[in-house]
């Protein structure tokens, strides 16, 4: 009888263990089911967030804010309607000087605010600043899908042409604000970030090139501002020509704006009055120049062979500007 009791006890214990194990498995199945439901809810929430972000985004990109310059320090603050996750860049470039470590970037969050910090290199050169959203360099796939991998969906007053190189030249569209600082810029100043107002000429894109240029002398440089019928992105080169000499470092280059306008600054040599023949300024556009964008050749020919008119000269256009005495 004792053995039977013992066996019964053992059987009872075994039954208890089995019952406990079964109950644990059921709990686990319930936990797994709950986890799966929670995970599905999270995925749905993330999808809803993505849909909300895309729904609120606008292809007509806007920037607002300002640039504060304090000595060689530049602080750029503002707001944009770019979708969260988009990355903007601030670029500092100087004529005839390679710039390193001057750029900054910022990832846009829900409030659309941004801030970038730059140091302006201490060179006596014209500084070109650009605040830009470049869809070609984005990592967020939602951003790429919305604006287009080459910016084909971008709209608005800040829309500009650009070019990237990935085994071959790729024409793209970006949204950007650009500003030029002269070599002797005011070291304490504020600059507003505002939408440009382009007035496109009726003859833009014609092969008979028109250059309407005004020049002025500002401290230690010449300012050359002009209108033209050049297509957007055409690289315009302005420089000082000194007969009998090779003048290095007295030049500037810029891409024509959407309306064909441009602004160049050329440094003035200290010994300008010492030359036998009078120096003069030259403004030129050569479609075959190494840093011209790909689409320029489509308008004017790869060697500039389609250029015509009074300014056309051996595959380029050139305007000579005498200096005032």
UniProtKB/TrEMBL annotation:
Region (Disordered): 18-53
The protein's name: Uncharacterized protein
Source species taxonomy: Bacteria, Bacillati, Bacillota, Bacilli, Bacillales
């Amino acid at each position: 009888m004792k053995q039977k009791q013992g066996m019964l006890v053992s059987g009872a214990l075994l039954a208890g263990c089995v019952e406990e194990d079964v109950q644990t498995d059921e709990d686990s199945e319930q936990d797994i089911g709950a986890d799966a439901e929670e995970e599905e809810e999270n995925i749905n929430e993330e999808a809803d967030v993505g849909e909300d972000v895309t729904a609120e985004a606008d292809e007509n990109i806007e920037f607002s804010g300002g640039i504060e310059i304090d000595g060689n320090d530049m602080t750029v603050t503002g707001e944009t309607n770019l979708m969260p996750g988009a990355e903007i860049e601030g670029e500092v470039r100087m004529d005839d000087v390679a710039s390193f470590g001057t750029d900054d970037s910022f990832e846009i969050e829900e409030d659309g605010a941004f801030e970038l910090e730059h140091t302006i290199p201490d060179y006596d050169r014209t500084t070109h600043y650009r605040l830009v959203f470049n869809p070609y360099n984005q990592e967020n796939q939602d951003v790429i899908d919305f604006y287009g991998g080459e910016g084909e969906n971008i709209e608005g007053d800040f829309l500009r042409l650009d070019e990237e190189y990935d085994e071959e030249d790729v024409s793209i569209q970006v949204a950007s604000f650009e500003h030029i600082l002269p070599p002797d810029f005011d070291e304490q100043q504020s600059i507003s970030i505002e939408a440009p107002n382009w007035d496109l000429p009726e003859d833009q894109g014609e092969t008979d090139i028109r250059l309407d240029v005004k020049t002025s002398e500002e401290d230690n440089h010449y300012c050359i501002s002009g209108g033209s019928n050049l297509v957007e992105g055409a690289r315009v080169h302005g420089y000082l020509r000194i007969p009998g000499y090779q003048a290095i470092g007295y030049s500037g280059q810029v891409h024509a704006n959407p309306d064909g306008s441009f602004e160049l600054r050329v440094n003035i040599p200290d010994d300008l009055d010492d030359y036998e023949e009078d120096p003069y300024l030259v403004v030129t556009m050569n479609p075959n120049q190494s840093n011209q964008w790909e689409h320029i050749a489509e308008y004017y020919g790869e060697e500039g062979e389609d250029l015509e008119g009074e300014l056309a000269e051996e595959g380029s256009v050139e305007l000579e500007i005498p200096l005032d005495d």
